[in-house]
Structure formats: structure tokens, C-alpha cells
């Protein structure tokens, strides 16, 4: 029988996971979207719940079913980046760990057409103007820095193809510093797309912020996550 004295590693912790893609409506029948299966975020939510955490899953548009009926996981559905921002702002202050696996649309249409956009006979093509969405990850990090409250550990994600100037790891390293999060999970995308697969290989980049805890555990003990000696860890396995 399991020893009742032994607590699962994340028991008493609150974990917020964002997963899936956001959708920015153009008119009642059209949207701009981001590709994301949602599988990575769901796998992380289920793993955290199995480790004893109370998990709040903020679920965007996903190819797979959200885990609606698992003990310790509550699911909140969102569509737009603005809705994701509101949800994160509401729940992040109570979270010990924030995992930003969602693929957030960087831009949204400047205007929403209340009526369906129709083709016209004059041969003119419609022009869609875009504006920036808020950077939810970066603002959560900034808020923690300014207020001294918020998740002890904030995890960002990146999907990079690399470019002629920089390889994916260099881009991810720059993104980790720019966003200011504690960990960055890099998915390399390219010829063999990682989207939707059940297995993946990731790089986990750690920031020096992990070694300087901003907050101790509720019982006063030190945080259990420690920075790896090397900044990059590569993991291969099932999501
Ligand atoms: N993210 C976010 N809000 C945004 C865009 C991204 O919170 N408006 C988060 C994602 O959930 C992810 C991380 O930031 O955890 C990195 O997303 P990514 O799209 O790779 O970063 P960007 O800064 O948007 O860079 P890029 O120009 O490469 O898309
Ligand atoms: Ca982006």
C-alpha cells in the first residue's frame, strides 16, 4: 500500500497550463488562426495532475479533446488572445507554475466586420489590416518582477525553424532572454513538422532566474525545481 506520509511531488501546488491555438475573428464566419494540436499542453497538464497538482488548463483551439473529466484538472475554454490574456491575468497570481504552451496569434484584425465580408463585382480584393496582440508571457514575467508576486516558475515555448542567420537554439536562447521566463521549451519545426505528432524531441533552456528564487514554498521549504548546470537539456520521448 502507498505510504500515506509520502506526498506526490506537486501536491499542494497550483499549475496553470495554456494549450492550443488562438483564433482571431474577422467576421462571423472567418478567423485568423495559429496551428497547434494542443497535445503538448494537455500532456503537461495531465502529468502535473498525476503528480498531485491542482491544474487549471486554459484551452484554445485544439485538434484533440481537452481532458474535461480528470480529477484535479479544470478546463477553461478560450478563443482569442484577449480572452487568453484575461484568463491568465485572473489565475496566474495564485499559480506556483505557469506553463505557456499555447500558440498565441501575434496579430489580430484591426476591425471585426459584424456582417460577413462579401465578394464584390468590381474586382477589388479586400485588405485586412492587423494590430499586435499583447505578449501574455512577457507581461506576466514583467508583472512578477514589478510586484514580486506570481508564479514561482514561468515556462515559455518556442517553435523555431531557424534562418540563414541563426539556428533554432540561438533563436530560442535570444527568446528566453527577451521574454524573461525561467524555462523555455524549444520545438524545432521544419521539413518533418512536429505539429500533431505524438512523439517529439525538445530542448529545455534554463534561465539564471531559476537559481534566484523569488518565493519559497507554502511550508517555507526551498523550491524543488533547480537550474540545470548546463543551460540546455535535450529530452526525447512521448508527449
Ligand atoms: N506568447 C504569448 N503571447 C503572445 C505570443 C506568444 O504569451 N502574444 C507566448 C507563447 O505562449 C510561448 C512564447 O510566448 O510560450 C513564445 O511564443 P512565440 O510565438 O515563439 O514568441 P514571439 O515572441 O511571438 O516570437 P515570434 O516572432 O518568433 O513568433
Ligand atoms: Ca509568435
TrEMBL record:
GO MF annotation list: FMN binding; metal ion binding; phosphopantothenate--cysteine ligase activity; phosphopantothenoylcysteine decarboxylase activity
Domain of life: Bacteria
Reactions accelerated catalytically: (R)-4'-phosphopantothenate + L-cysteine + CTP = N-[(R)-4-phosphopantothenoyl]-L-cysteine + CMP + diphosphate + H(+); N-[(R)-4-phosphopantothenoyl]-L-cysteine + H(+) = (R)-4'-phosphopantetheine + CO2
Domain DNA/pantothenate metabolism flavoprotein C-terminal: 10-208
Keywords recorded for this protein, A-Z: Decarboxylase, Flavoprotein, FMN, Ligase, Lyase, Magnesium, Metal-binding, Multifunctional enzyme
Binding site for CTP: 106, 116, 134-137, 157, 175, 179
EC number: 4.1.1.36, 6.3.2.5
Pathway note: Cofactor biosynthesis; coenzyme A biosynthesis; CoA from (R)-pantothenate: step 3/5; Cofactor biosynthesis; coenzyme A biosynthesis; CoA from (R)-pantothenate: step 2/5
Cofactor note: Binds 1 FMN per subunit.
GO biological process: coenzyme A biosynthetic process; pantothenate catabolic process
Gene Ontology CC: phosphopantothenoylcysteine decarboxylase complex
Region (Disordered): 210-232
Region annotated Phosphopantothenate--cysteine ligase, chain positions: 15-239
Cofactor section: Mg(2+); FMN
Function, in words: Catalyzes two sequential steps in the biosynthesis of coenzyme A. In the first step cysteine is conjugated to 4'-phosphopantothenate to form 4-phosphopantothenoylcysteine. In the second step the latter compound is decarboxylated to form 4'-phosphopantotheine.
Protein family per UniProt: In the C-terminal section; belongs to the PPC synthetase family.
UniProt protein name: Coenzyme A biosynthesis bifunctional protein CoaBC
Originating organism: Nesterenkonia aurantiaca
Origin organism lineage: Bacteria, Bacillati, Actinomycetota, Actinomycetes, Micrococcales
Residue span relative to the full protein: 192 to 430 of 446
Amino acid at each position: 500500500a502507498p505510504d500515506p506520509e509520502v506526498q506526490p511531488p506537486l501536491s499542494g501546488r497550483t499549475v496553470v497550463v495554456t494549450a492550443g491555438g488562438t483564433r482571431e475573428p474577422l467576421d462571423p464566419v472567418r478567423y485568423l488562426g495559429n496551428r497547434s494540436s494542443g497535445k503538448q499542453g494537455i500532456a503537461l497538464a495531465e502529468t502535473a495532475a498525476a503528480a498531485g497538482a491542482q491544474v487549471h488548463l486554459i484551452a484554445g483551439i485544439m485538434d484533440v479533446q481537452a481532458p474535461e473529466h480528470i480529477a484535479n484538472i479544470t478546463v477553461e475554454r478560450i478563443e482569442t488572445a484577449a480572452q487568453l490574456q484575461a484568463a491568465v491575468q485572473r489565475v496566474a497570481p495564485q499559480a506556483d507554475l505557469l506553463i505557456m504552451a499555447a500558440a498565441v496569434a501575434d496579430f489580430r484584425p484591426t476591425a471585426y466586420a459584424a456582417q460577413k465580408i462579401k465578394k464584390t463585382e468590381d474586382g477589388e480584393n479586400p485588405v485586412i489590416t492587423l494590430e499586435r496582440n499583447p505578449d501574455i508571457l512577457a507581461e506576466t514575467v514583467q508583472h512578477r518582477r514589478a510586484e514580486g508576486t506570481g508564479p514561482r516558475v514561468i515556462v515559455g515555448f518556442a517553435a523555431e525553424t531557424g534562418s540563414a542567420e541563426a539556428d533554432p537554439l540561438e533563436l530560442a536562447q535570444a527568446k528566453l532572454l527577451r521574454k524573461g521566463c525561467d524555462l523555455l521549451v524549444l520545438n524545432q519545426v521544419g521539413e518533418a513538422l512536429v505539429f500533431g505528432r505524438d512523439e517529439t524531441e525538445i530542448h529545455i533552456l534554463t534561465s539564471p532566474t531559476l537559481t534566484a528564487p523569488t518565493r519559497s514554498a507554502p511550508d517555507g521549504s526551498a523550491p524543488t525545481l533547480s537550474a540545470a548546470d548546463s543551460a540546455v537539456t535535450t529530452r526525447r520521448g512521448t508527449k
